[in-house]
Each structure stands twice: as structure tokens, then as C-alpha cells.
Write a structure and sequence with these properties.
Keywords: Electron transport, Heme, Iron, Membrane, Metal-binding, Mitochondrion, Mitochondrion inner membrane, Respiratory chain, Transmembrane, Transmembrane helix, Transport. The chain is mainly alpha-helical and about 70 residues long. It is about 75% helix and about 0% strand. It has one domain. It is flat and about 50 Å long.
Length: about 70
């Protein structure tokens, strides 16, 4: 693998994060105006937290099933 290519990709990903607010022309008003987006975001964060906690559990019967169900929901 080419390390220079990886370094360039990493730098470009950071540069894009700084450039996007300057060139972004969307009429998006913010999360407070879109309640369904708030619900979906909170659901996503909750599932992500539960998956993180399930990943710390031992590989045993109830935890494996819970992890699989949460993965399908995710």
C-alpha cells in the first residue's frame, strides 16, 4: 500500500470539513424545526450506545442475541 496516498486522503478529509461550511448553500433551518429528525437522531444514538455496551459483554447466550437484534435495528 502507498502511504503517501493514505496521508493525502487523510489531509483531504480534514480539509473538506473546513471547506464545507464556506461553500454550503442549503436552506436547512436546524434540527429544532424537524421533530422527526430529532426522534431518529435520538434513536440512532440510543442504539449506538446499546451496541457499545453489548460489545463489552462476554460472548454468552443472551448477550449474543441482544447484539444481533441491535445490529439488525442499526
Amino acid at each position: 500500500p502507498n502511504k503517501l496516498g493514505g496521508v493525502i486522503a487523510l489531509v483531504m478529509s480534514i480539509v473538506i470539513l473546513f471547506i464545507m461550511p464556506i461553500v454550503h448553500m442549503s436552506k436547512f433551518q436546524g434540527m429544532q424545526f424537524y421533530p422527526i429528525n430529532q426522534i431518529m437522531f435520538r434513536f440512532y444514538v440510543t442504539i449506538l450506545g446499546l451496541l457499545t455496551g453489548a460489545g463489552a459483554m462476554p460472548v454468552e447466550a443472551p448477550y449474543v442475541i441482544i447484539s444481533q437484534i441491535l445490529t439488525v435495528i442499526y
